[in-house]
Structures are given as C-alpha cells and as structure tokens.
Amino acid sequence: MELEKQYEVEITGISHQGYGVGRIGELVVFVPQAMLEELVLIKIIAIKKKMAMGKLIEVLQPNPHRQPPACMQSGQCGGCELQHGSYAYQLAAKRKIVQDAMCKLARLDIEVKPVLGMKEPWRYRNKGVFHADYSQGIVRLGFYQPESHSFVPANQCLLFSQAVNGLVCWLESAIQNTGLANEIDKIMIRESSTSGACMVVFVTHAHKWRFSNFVEQLQREQPQVVSIYHNVNTNPKVMLGRHFQLLAGEDTILDTLDGLQFQISPQSFFQVNCLQAEVLYRKALEYAALTGTETVIDAYCGIGTISLYFARHAAQVIGVESIAQATKDAKRNAQENHITNCKFITAKTEDWLPKWLAQKNTADLIIVDPPRKGCDTAVLDAIIQSKIAKVIYISCNPSTLARDVKYLTQFGYVVEEVQPVDLFGQGWHVEVVVSICRKNT
Ligand code: SAH
Fold first, then answer.
1. Which of 242, 269, 307, 433 best tests ligand 1's pocket when mutated (most atoms within 8 Å of CB)?
2. Contact in structure between 406 and 395 (CB atoms under 8 Å)
3. 301 alpha carbon to ligand 1 midpoint, in Å?
4. First to last CA, the chain
5. Residues noted as catalytic
6. pLDDT tens column, 29-56
7. Is the CB of 322 under 6 A from ligand 1?
8. Max CA separation in the chain (angstroms)
9. Contact by Cβ (8 Å): 374, 401
10. Among 22, 23, 45, 58, which one is most buried in terms of CB atoms within 10 A?
11. Which residues make beta-bridge pairs with 419?
C-alpha cells in the first residue's frame, strides 16, 4: 500500500469511532464517512504498522441508508460523524459497535439489545464548548476539526436549540463590537432543558476578568442567561481550567429529570441529552429491581442523578465522586428534592470502595458509571472480593466496558443484559447499561 494512492475498498466493519473498516491485502484501513456494506474509492492518508487511514473520495456502491447530510458542515467540525446515514442506520451501527466489543473484546456470547433511540435526533444538546476564532478580524464561535486546530464555525449547529444558536450569534457580534476580540478563548454554554435558562462560562488565558460592562450587557440583552462565570485555562490539552469565578447571577443552573430537580455547577458532569438520560436511568432502575430494603453504592455519582433516582426505591444510597463541587451539588440536590436516605462522599472510587468494604460494610447493589477510561482494577477487585450480588455498569465507552465486564465474568459474575441507549444522535458516541449479577456459588 502506498501513501496518497487511491484504492477501491469494500467496507465490512465499523470502528468504535464510527469509521468504515475495510482491508487492503493484510492491512486494515479506516475510512471516516464510509458506511457498512459500501464499495468506496479512497486515498490513503496515513499508514501505521498494521493499519491505515483512508480519505473517502467517492462512494461507488452506496449503502441504501446513505442520505445527504442535513448540515453543510457534516464531516468537517468533528461532531455528527454518522450524519451521512439514516437514523435507523446510526442505531444499527451503534448496536454493532457494542456487539463487537462484547463478542471480540469481552468474549461474551450475548445478544446486545437494539439501541433505545431518540424520537427526534436533533437539537438535543444542553451543553457545548465553542472555540473563539479571530482570523481576518472577524469574531466567530465554533469547533475544531478532530485532532487539529482547523476552525469550523458553529453556523446554526443542528444539535443545539435555536435559542442557543441565537445566543452564539449574539456573543459573536457583541465580542466584535465591544473590542473583546482575542481575549476570550472559548465559551461554554449550558442550557436548562426545562426552563431554557442558560449558564455562560468565558474561558480565557488571562487570570483577571476585566470586562464587567460586557457581562452587564449580556445580562441585559440576553435575560435567559442566569449564570455567568469566568474560567482561566492555559493548558491546551483540556477544555476548561480548574478555577471558576462567578461573575454574575446564580452559581448553578437548574434542570429536571423525571420530576427530580438538579442544580448543576459549571464543573459538574451532567448528561448532555436530558430526554435520553431519563431513558438510561429508568433502564438502570429497572435492572436494579429494588424492593426498598437495599443498600446501594452509586460510584462515579457526579451530582447525584442516579443516586436520587435509586433513593426513592432503596433503603439507602451512598454516592462516591472525585470532584468536590459535584459532591456539593449532589448533597444540595438530595436536600432540595427532600431525599434523606442518600450520603455523598468525595473520594476516588478506587481509594474509597476497597477500604469501605474491608471495614465489614456491604452493599446489595453497586452501580458504576465511570469516565471513558473505565473502572480501576482496584474497584473491580473490591466488588469481586466482597461478592456484591448485583452490578449495574453504565458506560460511555464500549471498549473499556468490555474489558471490565470480561474481568468480572472471569471472577464469578454473569452478564444478564446489555442495553445501549442513544444520547448522541448523529455522532458516534453510545451509552450502554449492563445488568450483571453474581453467580450462585
Ligand atoms: N453518574 C453521573 C456522572 C457520570 S460521569 C451521572 O450520570 O450524571 C463520571 C463521573 O465520575 C464524573 O462526575 C467524574 O467527575 C467522576 N469521576 C471520575 N473519576 C473518578 C474516580 N476515580 N472516582 C470517583 N469519581 C470519579
């Protein structure tokens, strides 16, 4: 195979990032934008040891589910990697990604359930981070192409509400007109799916915020913005820095899920798609089959979303979370929802859980919802040693999910059901909830 050369490739698989996968001789080639069962013409743009990256030149035989993307910038901005396929195709592709992980990585013989999809797979995102670009003296907000610093304007992004897009346009012109160009690096916007209220976080390199007039103008002209923060970040590898300073308004934004209210601080995690988060948490609750007598551990609990869902049906819930502000939000959320049988601990799960279980404590059920890197082995070992009867694993990364599930099944656990839920229409991400129980031994 040669760099820059063109090849015809049959797409026979799909990678976990939604790329089409084919073969040229012994080499595996990944092709963004190519769909399963297509014959495509590609150009090789990178070659590594056993794999290559191809750029799609032409679709020679299209998948019947191929469709013209609704957004002009599809394939450019780094979001919506599956927009060229119908929504039915997207769901089938995501199911295959999870099924492949379960069969090939976890070596499990289990049929993954069809993905629970969205009714309307657009305008669902309640949070976005918009990069600022100041080239040619024009202020624009948007995104970077994957693994690059090439800027693509947000341009009425179809994943956000019209109101958020309107706010983005307002910010662009206000920054332009008030001489703030080059000062702001990124802007994070969070919108309450319940009320439409917004939180805006300005991210800068500079440590001091010097633009109080601008903040006043934002409050005056965009009254739905109820919370305004400044965040300092000088590390290009992360989106936001650690320190948030409240510039105006409320310190949290309020959203609701299934009648539960959640106050969300800017640094706290909250699922970006509220309607589908409800579907996910309801499924987890169904798997838990709680009777009201159980002690539940909610590991990686964030602001206590799952804890509060479960608390209504269990004796007690203990939430563990590493970010102190999120734990603080969780405590406040329990209080404001009049839930008294929850306790929240700020700690790394891998530090806290083994110690807690070693002190002769026990739980009937543990739910783990870790970040993309999955669970630390110390967490899995502690579960295995204490023989917790039921584990519910929520994952945003099928590869690490498969790794961890494989480990648990090697030490006395069986997987009962694997249910993907789509929280990210048009994109390749997929959430999975897995019901796992201890074998009777
Ligand atoms: N279950 C929550 C949050 C899931 S996101 C929800 O559904 O809303 C994962 C959470 O794990 C984040 O809040 C992150 O801050 C936290 N986290 C990351 N590493 C952790 C660790 N080692 N121990 C405990 N929490 C951790």
1. 269
2. no
3. 5
4. 53
5. 396
6. 999 999 999 999 999 999 998 899 999 9
7. yes
8. 71
9. yes
10. 22
11. 433
The reply to whether ligand 1 has any atom less than 6 angstroms from the CB of 300 is yes
Give the residue, by CA position, lying nearest to ligand 1 atom 3: 302
The whole-angstrom separation of Cα 286 and Cα 364 is 15
Instruction: Find out whether the beta carbon of 310 lies less than 6 Å from any atom of ligand 1.
Output: no
How far does residue 369's CA lie from ligand 1's centre (Å)? 7
- Determine the length of the chain: 441
- List, for residues 244-284, the tens digit of each pLDDT value: 999 999 999 999 999 999 999 999 999 999 999 999 999 99
- This prediction's pTM: 0.96
Q: Which amino acid is at 208?
A: K
Residues forming beta bridges with residue 255, ordered by sequence position: 262
Task: Determine the Cα–Cα distance for residues 153 and 79; give it in Å rounded to an integer.
Answer: 12
Neighbours of 426 (CB within 10 A): 24
Tokens of 164: 């958020």
Please report the atom of ligand 1 found closest to the CA of residue 303. 8
Alpha-helical (H) ranges within 312-433 are 324-336, 349-358, 377-386, 398-410
